[in-house]
Amino acid sequence: MTRRYFGTDGIRGTVGEPPITADFMLKLGWATGRVLVARHGQRRPRVLIGKDTRISGYMFESALEAGLSAAGVDVALLGPMPTPGIAYLTRTFRADAGIVISASHNAFPDNGIKFFSTAGTKLGDELEEEIEAMLEEPLTTVAADKLGKATRINDADGRYIEFCKSTIPDRVSLTGLKVVLDCAHGATYHIAPSVFRELGAEVGLVGASPDGLNINQGVGSTHPAALRAAVIQQGADLGVAFDGDGDRVLLVDSDGREIDGDDILYLIARDRHARGELGGGVVGTLMSNFGLAAALEQLGVPFERAKVGDRYVMERLAANGWQLGGESSGHIVCGHVQTTGDGIVSALQVLAIMVREEKPLQRLLAGLEKAPQALVNVRLTPGSDARAVMEMPALQAAVAEVEAELGDEGRVLLRPSGTEPLIRVMVEGRPHLDVAGLARRLAGEVEVLLA
Q1: Measured between alpha carbons, how far apart are the two ends of the chain, in Å?
Q2: What is the pLDDT of residue 166?
Q3: pLDDT computed for residue 310 by the predictor
Q4: pTM for the model
Q5: Are 89 and 97 in contact (CB under 8 A)?
Q6: Which residues contact 230 (CB under 8 A, 6 or more apart)?
Q7: Quick check: helix, strand or coil at residue 129?
Q8: Cβ(110)–Cβ(15) below 8 Å
């Protein structure tokens, strides 16, 4: 079935432009409800709804609630909550589905919808296809005595805070560590500070004052400069940057150096492998640095690349029976404690390693030597199709030319973004190669074709 709405990470776009409109969200809630009611027979389904801090979340929360109620589904509202927190609460409340209203690392004019299954995992293709098919049907309302009810889960924050704390051993205390948290003015703003403080850390804050319009604005995992400056100014041991919905994380060491998802994967894999708890290998993506694969090979840890996107990482983890995977962007899946990427949980795993080994991040990363990697994002012009551009002979010839220059000492990857109207151009190679120049050259070719 050809999908009209669902992409690799739910439904996302600009608020007010189809399908990110109030009327569509009403219909989406209804269609989801109808599918769940059909699957569960006489039992009334229950759906949890959470959101990040962008202003449009209020509108879409109300629209989804109305649609679900019209279909005969009960709704429990969580309010602002990190995406992984919604996954966790969906699972522990035994809800039939969880809905996240968020556009992750995008700016506030965008918003989107993600779904979680009752197990706290991404919704399966079959269910998404059923929802898409139901969207084509006329909206109807169940009898008044069958309408769904709406409640609010007032202790959702506390439940998720306690879960995050439980993902590291009780004996691990963060007392004596100073940590700066950058919450991106997003969904972690009221959760992460409590987690780290209750574990004993001294906490400094950046990006923890959301106003509905400032999510991801110059802060968060996509804009780490503010966190770097705060870590150095405050003499902190570590900086932690989340994205708007809290499923990604990047770190900054005490010298202001950025620690990305590949670094975090290496740290967790090395530690769990050394303690005999890794449970197989590690799944990265096509964007994962060559140095990560080489370092894991040195440890004797199997490594496999998936297509970019947490959905594909999760698929390969499930197929292999492995627990640890993620993306260089900071979406880390610690399957031994969580069912999806979780920025707070991933950061805690790294801090627990620092405490156990009594070493700073710089020393813990000594076994990882990453190859230089350059990434340039080219924004698509209105109406252009990323895949069509990438298939143009002129661009393929330019890629072949760069690949010939790299030989067996580097690689090129062009791909359309799954979350924004971009073509991402990545070049990776040995230190003596000008990967940044080559990436800019290819990006220029893309821009010419888009002109």
Answers
A1: 33
A2: 98
A3: 87
A4: 0.91
A5: no
A6: 180, 182, 204, 206, 236, 239
A7: helix
A8: yes
User: In the prediction, which pLDDT does 44 show?
Assistant: 94
**Cβ(253)–Cβ(360) under 8 Å?**
yes
What is d(CA 308, CA 312) in angstroms, rounded to the nearest whole number? 7
Reading the block at residue 244, the tokens are: 């708007």
Residues with active-site annotation: 104
- Dmax (CA) for the chain in angstroms is 72
Q: pLDDT of 4-23, one tens digit each?
A: 898 877 899 999 999 999 99
Dihedral angle, C-alpha 255, 259, 264, 267, nearest 10 °: -40
Please check whether residue 132 is in contact with residue 44, taking contact to mean a CB–CB distance below 8 angstroms. Answer: no
pLDDT recorded at residue 180:
98
DSSP state of 169: -
CA distances in angstroms from 78 to 50, 68, 132, listed in the order given = 5, 15, 25
Give the separation between CA 346 and CA 328, rounded to whole angstroms: 13
Q: Are 121 and 340 in contact (CB under 8 A)?
A: yes
- Tally of residues, the chain: 451
CA distance 427 to 442: 9
Which residue carries 């669902």 as its tokens?
Answer: 6
Question: What is the phi/psi pair of residue 443, to 5°?
Answer: -60, -40
Q: Give 253's strand partners.
A: 238
Which stretches within 275-407 are classed as H helix? 290-299, 310-320, 343-357, 361-364, 386-390, 393-406
> What is the pLDDT, as a whole number, of residue 2?
65
Counting beta carbons within 10 angstroms of the beta carbon of residue 356, is it exposed (0 to 12), middle (13 to 18) or buried (19 or more)?
Answer: middle
Place of tokens 């109207």: 421
Q: How far apart are CA 360 and CA 376, in angstroms?
A: 31
Are 283 and 261 a contacting pair, CB within 8 Å? no
Cα–Cα distance, 222 to 55 (Å, whole number): 20
**pLDDT given for residue 418 in this prediction:** 75
Can you list the residues of the chain whose pLDDT is less than 70? Answer: 1-2
Alpha helices in 93-175 (DSSP H): 125-134, 156-166
At 190 the three-state DSSP class reads coil
pLDDT value of position 41: 76
Give the sign of the dihedral formed by CA 417, CA 333, CA 243, CA 91. positive
Q: Return all residues near 361 (Cβ < 8 A) that are at least 6 apart.
A: 238, 251, 253, 254, 259, 267, 350, 354
Dist. CA 23–CA 15, nearest whole Å: 12
